[in-house]
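Running this now, will post back.
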Amino acid sequence: MFLCSFLPSLAAQSLRLGIIGTDSSHAVEFTRLLNNASEQDHIPGATIVAAYRGGSPRLALSRDRIEKFTKQLEQNSIPFVASISDLCTRVDGLLLLSVDPELRPAEFRQAIACNKPVFVDKPFAPSLNDALQMAKLARDHHTAWFSASALRYAATDLPHDAVSAEVWGPGDLGENYRLDLAWYGIHSIEALYGIFGPGVQSVARAHTAQTDVLTMIWRDGRTGTVRLIRPDEPFGAEVFQPAHPPVQKTLSASYAPLVRAIVTFMQTGQSPVPAAETLEIFAVMDASQRSKQENGRLIMLPTTIVGFTKVAP
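Update: finished.
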Protein backbone atom coordinates (compact mmCIF):
# COMPACT_ATOMS: atom_id res chain seq x y z
CA MET A 1 0.00 0.00 0.00
CA PHE A 2 1.25 3.45 -0.91
CA LEU A 3 -0.18 6.72 0.36
CA CYS A 4 0.78 9.81 -1.58
CA SER A 5 1.22 12.75 0.81
CA PHE A 6 -1.52 14.88 -0.70
CA LEU A 7 -4.25 12.25 -0.68
CA PRO A 8 -5.90 12.62 2.77
CA SER A 9 -6.93 16.21 2.04
CA LEU A 10 -8.58 15.13 -1.22
CA ALA A 11 -11.12 12.75 0.28
CA ALA A 12 -13.52 15.61 1.07
CA GLN A 13 -13.26 17.38 -2.30
CA SER A 14 -13.82 16.55 -5.95
CA LEU A 15 -10.75 15.04 -7.55
CA ARG A 16 -9.39 16.06 -10.92
CA LEU A 17 -8.60 13.03 -13.08
CA GLY A 18 -6.78 12.77 -16.39
CA ILE A 19 -7.11 10.12 -19.08
CA ILE A 20 -4.19 8.49 -20.87
CA GLY A 21 -5.42 6.92 -24.11
CA THR A 22 -8.71 7.91 -25.73
CA ASP A 23 -8.86 4.89 -28.06
CA SER A 24 -11.00 2.98 -25.56
CA SER A 25 -14.76 3.16 -25.06
CA HIS A 26 -13.94 3.29 -21.34
CA ALA A 27 -12.64 6.83 -21.83
CA VAL A 28 -16.12 7.91 -22.90
CA GLU A 29 -18.03 5.77 -20.39
CA PHE A 30 -15.92 6.72 -17.37
CA THR A 31 -16.28 10.40 -18.32
CA ARG A 32 -20.04 9.99 -18.58
CA LEU A 33 -20.26 8.39 -15.13
CA LEU A 34 -18.02 10.95 -13.45
CA ASN A 35 -18.86 14.23 -15.19
CA ASN A 36 -22.61 14.01 -15.83
CA ALA A 37 -24.48 14.49 -12.55
CA SER A 38 -27.81 13.87 -14.30
CA GLU A 39 -26.88 10.27 -15.14
CA GLN A 40 -28.79 7.71 -13.06
CA ASP A 41 -25.55 5.87 -12.23
CA HIS A 42 -23.45 9.03 -11.73
CA ILE A 43 -20.41 8.55 -9.45
CA PRO A 44 -19.60 11.69 -7.42
CA GLY A 45 -16.21 12.62 -6.02
CA ALA A 46 -14.14 13.07 -9.18
CA THR A 47 -14.31 14.55 -12.68
CA ILE A 48 -12.31 14.10 -15.86
CA VAL A 49 -10.57 17.41 -16.53
CA ALA A 50 -8.02 16.57 -19.25
CA ALA A 51 -6.91 13.81 -21.61
CA TYR A 52 -3.89 12.66 -23.58
CA ARG A 53 -4.94 11.10 -26.89
CA GLY A 54 -2.29 8.41 -27.33
CA GLY A 55 -3.28 5.63 -29.70
CA SER A 56 -1.58 2.73 -31.45
CA PRO A 57 -1.36 2.17 -35.22
CA ARG A 58 -0.48 -1.46 -34.42
CA LEU A 59 -4.00 -2.42 -33.39
CA ALA A 60 -7.18 -1.95 -35.43
CA LEU A 61 -9.06 -1.59 -32.13
CA SER A 62 -7.08 1.59 -31.57
CA ARG A 63 -6.59 3.13 -34.99
CA ASP A 64 -10.19 2.46 -36.14
CA ARG A 65 -11.88 3.91 -33.04
CA ILE A 66 -9.70 6.67 -31.63
CA GLU A 67 -11.18 9.45 -33.78
CA LYS A 68 -14.71 8.55 -32.70
CA PHE A 69 -13.95 8.45 -28.97
CA THR A 70 -11.72 11.53 -29.09
CA LYS A 71 -14.46 13.52 -30.80
CA GLN A 72 -17.01 12.43 -28.18
CA LEU A 73 -14.73 13.65 -25.40
CA GLU A 74 -14.12 16.95 -27.19
CA GLN A 75 -17.88 17.40 -27.51
CA ASN A 76 -18.02 17.03 -23.72
CA SER A 77 -15.51 19.89 -23.35
CA ILE A 78 -12.56 17.70 -22.28
CA PRO A 79 -9.32 19.53 -23.13
CA PHE A 80 -6.47 17.56 -24.66
CA VAL A 81 -2.76 17.85 -23.84
CA ALA A 82 0.27 17.07 -25.98
CA SER A 83 1.98 14.62 -23.61
CA ILE A 84 1.44 12.53 -20.49
CA SER A 85 3.77 14.81 -18.56
CA ASP A 86 1.46 17.73 -19.39
CA LEU A 87 -1.25 16.03 -17.34
CA CYS A 88 0.83 16.02 -14.15
CA THR A 89 0.10 19.56 -12.98
CA ARG A 90 -3.52 19.47 -14.08
CA VAL A 91 -4.76 16.39 -12.21
CA ASP A 92 -4.84 14.58 -8.87
CA GLY A 93 -4.87 11.11 -10.40
CA LEU A 94 -4.50 9.30 -13.73
CA LEU A 95 -6.56 6.73 -15.63
CA LEU A 96 -4.41 4.72 -18.03
CA LEU A 97 -7.02 3.43 -20.50
CA SER A 98 -5.22 2.93 -23.83
CA VAL A 99 -6.11 -0.38 -25.48
CA ASP A 100 -2.69 -1.57 -26.68
CA PRO A 101 -0.95 -3.40 -23.81
CA GLU A 102 2.40 -3.06 -25.58
CA LEU A 103 2.25 0.67 -24.78
CA ARG A 104 1.59 0.03 -21.09
CA PRO A 105 5.18 -0.13 -19.78
CA ALA A 106 6.22 3.19 -21.37
CA GLU A 107 2.95 4.96 -20.55
CA PHE A 108 2.97 3.64 -16.99
CA ARG A 109 6.55 4.82 -16.52
CA GLN A 110 5.54 8.33 -17.61
CA ALA A 111 2.44 8.24 -15.40
CA ILE A 112 4.48 7.16 -12.38
CA ALA A 113 6.74 10.18 -12.92
CA CYS A 114 3.75 12.42 -12.12
CA ASN A 115 3.75 11.06 -8.53
CA LYS A 116 -0.03 10.71 -8.65
CA PRO A 117 -2.12 7.56 -8.08
CA VAL A 118 -2.75 5.57 -11.26
CA PHE A 119 -5.60 3.30 -12.27
CA VAL A 120 -4.58 0.97 -15.11
CA ASP A 121 -7.34 -0.56 -17.19
CA LYS A 122 -7.12 -4.25 -17.96
CA PRO A 123 -4.74 -5.68 -18.94
CA PHE A 124 -2.20 -4.10 -16.61
CA ALA A 125 0.71 -5.20 -18.83
CA PRO A 126 1.47 -7.14 -22.03
CA SER A 127 3.20 -10.00 -20.19
CA LEU A 128 3.97 -11.37 -16.74
CA ASN A 129 7.54 -10.11 -16.91
CA ASP A 130 6.38 -6.60 -17.85
CA ALA A 131 3.80 -6.68 -15.04
CA LEU A 132 6.52 -7.56 -12.52
CA GLN A 133 8.78 -4.76 -13.74
CA MET A 134 5.95 -2.21 -13.70
CA ALA A 135 4.85 -3.17 -10.19
CA LYS A 136 8.44 -2.90 -8.96
CA LEU A 137 8.76 0.53 -10.60
CA ALA A 138 5.66 1.78 -8.79
CA ARG A 139 6.88 0.36 -5.49
CA ASP A 140 10.29 1.97 -5.89
CA HIS A 141 8.61 5.32 -6.60
CA HIS A 142 6.12 4.89 -3.72
CA THR A 143 3.23 5.42 -6.13
CA ALA A 144 -0.20 3.90 -5.57
CA TRP A 145 -1.79 1.96 -8.44
CA PHE A 146 -4.37 -0.69 -9.12
CA SER A 147 -5.84 -2.54 -12.07
CA ALA A 148 -9.12 -4.42 -12.40
CA SER A 149 -11.91 -5.46 -14.73
CA ALA A 150 -15.48 -4.32 -14.12
CA LEU A 151 -16.43 -8.03 -13.99
CA ARG A 152 -14.51 -8.45 -10.71
CA TYR A 153 -17.25 -6.41 -9.03
CA ALA A 154 -20.11 -8.29 -10.69
CA ALA A 155 -19.50 -11.51 -8.75
CA THR A 156 -18.69 -10.27 -5.25
CA ASP A 157 -22.20 -10.98 -3.91
CA LEU A 158 -22.00 -14.71 -4.66
CA PRO A 159 -21.34 -17.04 -1.68
CA HIS A 160 -17.66 -16.94 -0.75
CA ASP A 161 -17.74 -20.22 1.19
CA ALA A 162 -18.12 -22.24 -2.00
CA VAL A 163 -15.78 -25.14 -2.69
CA SER A 164 -16.02 -24.83 -6.46
CA ALA A 165 -17.08 -22.20 -8.97
CA GLU A 166 -17.44 -21.80 -12.71
CA VAL A 167 -17.38 -18.54 -14.65
CA TRP A 168 -18.12 -18.18 -18.34
CA GLY A 169 -17.96 -15.40 -20.89
CA PRO A 170 -16.74 -14.28 -24.32
CA GLY A 171 -13.59 -15.95 -25.59
CA ASP A 172 -12.29 -13.47 -28.16
CA LEU A 173 -8.49 -13.76 -28.14
CA GLY A 174 -7.93 -10.35 -29.72
CA GLU A 175 -5.15 -9.47 -32.15
CA ASN A 176 -1.42 -9.47 -31.54
CA TYR A 177 -1.64 -9.99 -27.77
CA ARG A 178 1.35 -11.74 -26.23
CA LEU A 179 -0.96 -13.19 -23.58
CA ASP A 180 -3.98 -14.23 -25.61
CA LEU A 181 -6.31 -14.17 -22.58
CA ALA A 182 -5.38 -10.57 -21.77
CA TRP A 183 -7.91 -9.14 -24.22
CA TYR A 184 -11.21 -10.72 -23.11
CA GLY A 185 -10.46 -13.86 -21.12
CA ILE A 186 -9.12 -11.70 -18.29
CA HIS A 187 -12.67 -10.49 -17.56
CA SER A 188 -13.88 -13.97 -16.63
CA ILE A 189 -10.66 -14.72 -14.72
CA GLU A 190 -11.13 -11.52 -12.70
CA ALA A 191 -14.74 -12.50 -11.97
CA LEU A 192 -13.52 -15.82 -10.55
CA TYR A 193 -10.98 -13.95 -8.41
CA GLY A 194 -13.83 -11.72 -7.24
CA ILE A 195 -15.46 -14.87 -5.83
CA PHE A 196 -12.43 -16.80 -4.50
CA GLY A 197 -9.59 -14.29 -4.17
CA PRO A 198 -5.94 -15.29 -4.72
CA GLY A 199 -4.15 -18.52 -3.89
CA VAL A 200 -4.12 -20.46 -7.18
CA GLN A 201 -1.74 -23.41 -7.18
CA SER A 202 -2.11 -24.78 -10.71
CA VAL A 203 -3.88 -24.25 -14.01
CA ALA A 204 -4.59 -26.41 -17.05
CA ARG A 205 -6.13 -25.19 -20.30
CA ALA A 206 -8.05 -27.05 -22.97
CA HIS A 207 -8.35 -25.21 -26.28
CA THR A 208 -10.53 -25.72 -29.35
CA ALA A 209 -11.64 -23.39 -32.14
CA GLN A 210 -14.86 -22.64 -30.22
CA THR A 211 -13.80 -22.65 -26.57
CA ASP A 212 -11.06 -22.40 -24.00
CA VAL A 213 -11.55 -24.07 -20.63
CA LEU A 214 -9.23 -23.23 -17.74
CA THR A 215 -9.21 -25.52 -14.71
CA MET A 216 -7.66 -23.87 -11.67
CA ILE A 217 -6.88 -25.40 -8.28
CA TRP A 218 -6.41 -23.25 -5.19
CA ARG A 219 -3.88 -24.20 -2.50
CA ASP A 220 -6.69 -24.92 -0.03
CA GLY A 221 -8.34 -27.41 -2.41
CA ARG A 222 -11.03 -25.22 -3.97
CA THR A 223 -11.46 -25.55 -7.72
CA GLY A 224 -12.48 -23.01 -10.32
CA THR A 225 -13.32 -23.25 -14.00
CA VAL A 226 -13.25 -20.48 -16.57
CA ARG A 227 -15.12 -21.28 -19.77
CA LEU A 228 -14.49 -18.91 -22.69
CA ILE A 229 -16.77 -19.24 -25.68
CA ARG A 230 -16.38 -17.90 -29.23
CA PRO A 231 -17.57 -15.89 -30.98
CA ASP A 232 -19.49 -14.52 -28.00
CA GLU A 233 -21.30 -15.44 -24.80
CA PRO A 234 -22.91 -13.45 -21.96
CA PHE A 235 -20.98 -13.43 -18.68
CA GLY A 236 -22.23 -15.73 -15.95
CA ALA A 237 -21.15 -17.65 -12.88
CA GLU A 238 -22.21 -20.63 -10.78
CA VAL A 239 -20.91 -21.53 -7.33
CA PHE A 240 -21.15 -24.82 -5.48
CA GLN A 241 -21.41 -25.17 -1.69
CA PRO A 242 -21.59 -28.36 0.41
CA ALA A 243 -25.19 -29.32 1.30
CA HIS A 244 -26.63 -26.42 -0.74
CA PRO A 245 -27.98 -26.18 -4.27
CA PRO A 246 -25.73 -24.39 -6.77
CA VAL A 247 -26.15 -20.62 -7.05
CA GLN A 248 -26.08 -19.21 -10.57
CA LYS A 249 -25.97 -15.59 -11.67
CA THR A 250 -25.77 -13.61 -14.90
CA LEU A 251 -22.90 -11.18 -14.46
CA SER A 252 -23.41 -7.53 -15.36
CA ALA A 253 -20.64 -5.66 -17.12
CA SER A 254 -21.72 -2.34 -15.58
CA TYR A 255 -18.84 0.09 -15.13
CA ALA A 256 -20.35 1.90 -12.14
CA PRO A 257 -18.97 -0.35 -9.34
CA LEU A 258 -15.48 -0.21 -10.86
CA VAL A 259 -15.57 3.58 -11.26
CA ARG A 260 -16.78 3.91 -7.66
CA ALA A 261 -13.79 1.81 -6.55
CA ILE A 262 -11.48 4.00 -8.65
CA VAL A 263 -12.75 7.18 -6.96
CA THR A 264 -12.27 5.66 -3.49
CA PHE A 265 -8.77 4.55 -4.46
CA MET A 266 -7.90 8.04 -5.72
CA GLN A 267 -9.17 9.53 -2.44
CA THR A 268 -7.32 7.15 -0.13
CA GLY A 269 -4.35 5.77 -2.06
CA GLN A 270 -5.35 2.28 -0.92
CA SER A 271 -5.70 -0.24 -3.73
CA PRO A 272 -8.74 -2.54 -3.47
CA VAL A 273 -6.76 -5.17 -5.39
CA PRO A 274 -3.28 -5.88 -3.95
CA ALA A 275 -0.37 -5.82 -6.38
CA ALA A 276 0.40 -9.47 -5.58
CA GLU A 277 -3.12 -10.49 -6.64
CA THR A 278 -2.86 -8.69 -9.99
CA LEU A 279 0.52 -10.32 -10.55
CA GLU A 280 -0.92 -13.74 -9.68
CA ILE A 281 -3.59 -13.24 -12.34
CA PHE A 282 -0.80 -12.59 -14.84
CA ALA A 283 0.96 -15.74 -13.64
CA VAL A 284 -2.30 -17.65 -14.28
CA MET A 285 -2.59 -16.25 -17.82
CA ASP A 286 1.07 -16.98 -18.50
CA ALA A 287 0.73 -20.55 -17.20
CA SER A 288 -2.49 -21.11 -19.14
CA GLN A 289 -0.78 -20.06 -22.36
CA ARG A 290 2.04 -22.51 -21.70
CA SER A 291 -0.56 -25.20 -20.94
CA LYS A 292 -2.28 -24.50 -24.26
CA GLN A 293 1.05 -24.79 -26.08
CA GLU A 294 1.72 -28.11 -24.31
CA ASN A 295 -1.65 -29.73 -25.11
CA GLY A 296 -3.33 -28.97 -21.81
CA ARG A 297 -0.55 -29.97 -19.42
CA LEU A 298 -1.10 -28.96 -15.79
CA ILE A 299 1.18 -26.02 -14.97
CA MET A 300 2.15 -25.24 -11.38
CA LEU A 301 2.33 -21.58 -10.40
CA PRO A 302 5.30 -20.25 -8.43
CA THR A 303 4.64 -20.11 -4.69
CA THR A 304 5.97 -16.54 -4.68
CA ILE A 305 5.86 -13.74 -7.18
CA VAL A 306 9.37 -12.29 -7.41
CA GLY A 307 9.60 -9.43 -4.93
CA PHE A 308 5.91 -9.62 -3.98
CA THR A 309 4.16 -11.80 -1.43
CA LYS A 310 1.24 -13.84 -2.74
CA VAL A 311 -1.74 -13.45 -0.44
CA ALA A 312 -3.12 -16.71 0.89
CA PRO A 313 -6.93 -17.09 0.72
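The chain is about 30% helix and 20% strand. More later if anyone needs it.
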